[in-house]
Specification:
The structure is a single chain. The chain is α+β, with helices and mostly antiparallel strands. About 45% of the residues lie in helices and about 15% in strands. It has a single domain, classed as Nucleoside diphosphate kinase-like domain (Alpha-Beta Plaits, 2-Layer Sandwich), CATH 3.30.70.141. A four-stranded antiparallel β-sheet has the order 2-3-1-4. The radius of gyration is 17 Å and the shape is globular. The two termini are about 15 Å apart. The chain binds adenosine-5'-diphosphate. The site of adenosine-5'-diphosphate (ADP) has 9 residues, from loops. Adenosine-5'-diphosphate binds next to loops. It catalyses: a 2'-deoxyribonucleoside 5'-diphosphate + ATP = a 2'-deoxyribonucleoside 5'-triphosphate + ADP; a ribonucleoside 5'-diphosphate + ATP = a ribonucleoside 5'-triphosphate + ADP. It is found in: Plastid, Chloroplast thylakoid lumen. Keywords: ATP-binding, Kinase, Magnesium, Metal-binding, Nucleotide metabolism, Nucleotide-binding, Transferase. This is Nucleoside diphosphate kinase.
């Protein structure tokens, strides 16, 4: 793809490739039911991140418990898992430089009341129990969550033309 670029630009491409990371993002049943899929996908897309996997699934309660296993001691765990398995969830993997941390910034604080305007939860949600979206909170979690939700062959590796305009 970039074979016709001068050497210094090829080095820049290599440097960016080394920084690339992937994160797991899910629009929870409330976000799907409220018709917010396109709004949320657009925010990640417009930022310059790349969608590498996407599917609509209804997770079983057992699967929801696996996804939220870190929270099993919390009083809201059972209700949270019931809720996650109550309808279709849009599961996605997004790729880009800094996408794990910046994805969390796009999403906003866990409690929408504490999320800044301009963030997904700040703009589109009101209460913590219906905060419409999930995003991995670190590199290890991202790896585990991607593995839990997707088979390796569902993760697409491809180049989009605009990448050279996003990364230089
Ligand atoms: P985040 O989703 O921002 O990573 P957590 O991992 O702490 O936040 O919690 C996972 C999910 O559990 C939250 O997104 C929210 O849906 C739910 N949750 C968190 N705290 C509460 C709470 N106090 N009451 C009800 N649900 C909660």
């Amino acid at each position: 793809m970039f074979l016709d670029l001068p050497a210094y630009m090829l080095q820049e491409q290599d440097a960016h490739a080394a920084e690339m990371e992937r994160t797991f993002i899910a629009i929870k049943p409330d976000g799907v039911q409220r018709g917010l899929i396109s709004e949320i996908v657009a925010r990640f897309e417009r930022k310059g991140f790349k969608l590498v996997a996407i599917k609509l699934v209804v997770p079983s309660k057992d699967f929801a418990q696996k996804h939220y296993h870190d929270l099993k001691e919390r009083p809201f765990f059972n209700g949270l898992c019931d809720f996650l398995s109550s309808g279709p969830v849009l599961a996605m993997v997004w790729e880009g430089e800094g996408v794990i941390k910046y994805g969390r910034k796009l999403i906003g604080a866990t409690d929408p009341q504490k999320s800044e305007p301009g963030t997904i939860r700040g703009d589109l949600a009101v209460v913590v129990g219906r905060n419409i979206i999930h995003g991995s909170d670190g590199p290890e979690t991202a790896k585990d969550e991607i593995k839990l939700w997707f088979k390796p062959e569902e993760l697409n590796t491809y180049t989009i033309n605009s990448e050279k305009w996003v990364y230089g």
